[in-house]
Amino acid sequence: MRIGSTNAMADPGKKFVLTDYGYSRTPEAVKKERKIGKPITGFEQKVPVSWIEKGYVEED
Predict the structure, then answer these.
(1) Which residue, among 17, 4, 10, has the nearest Cα to 50 in the 3D structure?
(2) Helix (H) or strand (E) holding 14
(3) What's the confidence (pLDDT) of residue 54?
(4) Which of 9, 37, 40, 57 has its CA 20 to 30 A from that of 30?
(5) Which residues, other chains included, contact 50 with Cβ-Cβ below 8 Å and sequence gap of 6+?
(6) Cα 5 → chain centroid
(7) Which top-rank group of organisms is this from (predicted)?
(8) How far is 23 from 12, CA to CA, in rounded Å?
């Protein structure tokens, strides 16, 4: 993964996926759209660095 000042980019062939902790912190209104271990639509390749630091997503 390549980490910039505000965003991180997944390595080629990899995606960012939602962790158990990330799912637990997901607002109820959108939980039905997200699954643990699956990418978040629109954030498959690029996520805010803070999401990684907080443990919401990981590269897979």
Answers:
(1) 4
(2) none
(3) 98
(4) 9
(5) none
(6) 17
(7) Bacteria
(8) 24
